[in-house]
Fold:
Amino acid sequence: MTLLDQVFCMLATSLCNHCLGRQFALLGYGLKNDARGEILRSLLALEAYDLLFSDPEKALSLLNRVVAEAHSCESLNDTSVDTQKVVELELTCYLCNGRFKAIPVLSSRVMEALKDYEFSTFLVGIELPFVVIEREDEFKGRCQVSHSESMKSHFSRVIGKQVAFATEKLVDHHTPDIVALVNPFVNSITLQVNSLYVAGRYRKLVRGIPQSRWLCSECHGAGCVKCDWVGKKYPESIEELIGIPVYRHANGREIAFHGAGREDIDTLMLGSGRPFVVEIKEPKKRFINLATIRNEINAFAEGKIEVGVLVFADKDVVRRIKKAEASKKIYNAIVEFARDVTAEELRRIEDVLCGSVIHQQTPLRVLQRRADLIREKHIYAAKLRRLSKRRAELKLHCQGGLYVKELISGDEGRTKPSLASIIDTEAKSIQLDVLGVID
Ligand SMILES: [Zn+2]
Ligand SMILES: [Zn+2]
Structure:
């Protein structure tokens, strides 16, 4: 098929210039699809005139196609599209039902929807009715189309350009702040507002605060007698202490808190703190002042926790932080033994633990939340300092994810070796602090 044969084939159905030109969009640059369509139509007309004497019948059939369309195109060329017009035009183009003419209307509706949100980047996504996609596929097959731009791409590109121009924001195909989903055929616009991520490190300076919001086991958050109608087992959490000030500034819908691992409720988090990311879902504001928020968090937490410098982050940082659970940790624990222990026994524990690999089966106390399996965790260094006959301070440098309380007690033989098993007595942690999380 020559190019003109293709055009002739295509014009067997009525097409707008946008859709005609779009079928050849990959041939050369610098032309808009509708201009391309107009040229192709004129070419077909020239061909018809060329054949007027040698093959009048063919010439007439060519002209019929061109003229019929040219006529319908005339009415399409009005750019001041109002809804009434759009309805009329729906009869005109076999492929798009005249919807390309509604692009200015769709663009301004997208801008209207976006105006309540702060954003730097966006993307226009297009949803098409199945029947429209099928119709175009069948059409492409019939006319052997191989250089076309898809209808989705055309709508997305042109609306995106208009919105970018008017709002002075950037189109981003990978991680846009907001995706505007447009269905040009039913005139619907849906916004998908991507999360705002703020990263930092927290120190926990008092015991008794869980990392995440801990709902009441009785009412699961609804409020009942057992929880004094607050719905929670603990009145506050690190998630809330850090998340709420961020959430207020960003004016979002929901908070998600991602920590690089977690310490127990009764464990302090000291040193330079534990990395975290606060995710605010569907934020209205993104241009928030993190220095102000940091001060607010620290004031709001009244010395219970403390956050360092806050920075904007993204989904990748959350992924990295989840993996950081496997990073190195430094712990300080106070160990109590069931009997008097000698300095020699403490040295023996150090010798066994230093550079060893611990086989740790999921602790009984977390069995409900985590799969029951055996994890191997490295201990890089262990130092014991005798405090009294039965007490010692343990300084531990180990791989993240090791359960230290169980390393001390042995957890009924589920953690091997353990302080208890090495000197064959019972042992327990009576105070545990995280001194450092090393990336
Ligand atoms: Zn069309
Ligand atoms: Zn309750």
